[in-house]
Amino acid sequence: MRTPSNNYRFTVAYDGTVYSGWQLQPNADSIQQQIETALSKIVGAPVRVHGSGRTDAGVHARAQVAHATFTTRHSPITLRRALKRELTG
What we know:
The chain has helices spanning 31-43, 76-88, and strands at 6-14, 49-51, 61-70. With 89 residues, the chain is α+β, with helices and mostly antiparallel strands. It has one domain (6-88): Pseudouridine synthase I, catalytic domain, N-terminal subdomain (Alpha-Beta Plaits). Strands 1-3-2 form a three-stranded antiparallel sheet, covered by helices on one side. The longest helix has 13 residues, at 31-43. It is globular. The mean pLDDT is 93.
């Protein structure tokens, strides 16, 4: 049986010093790309993340809200821990 997709809301804080901003960029590293890569690794499938706004290159955020829809058997708590582990290394 297939596990249904769920919507997940994320509130993230980040130091944007070395990033090109929130939004995906073809030749630069972005916050959105970092989160998508981490989530895709955790759930084993591509994940697209949608931010509630954008930041420019080098800008930090304390409470950037984003959402994604994907299928996983992980609980929200497990997802949070895994995502934090992936993003903070």
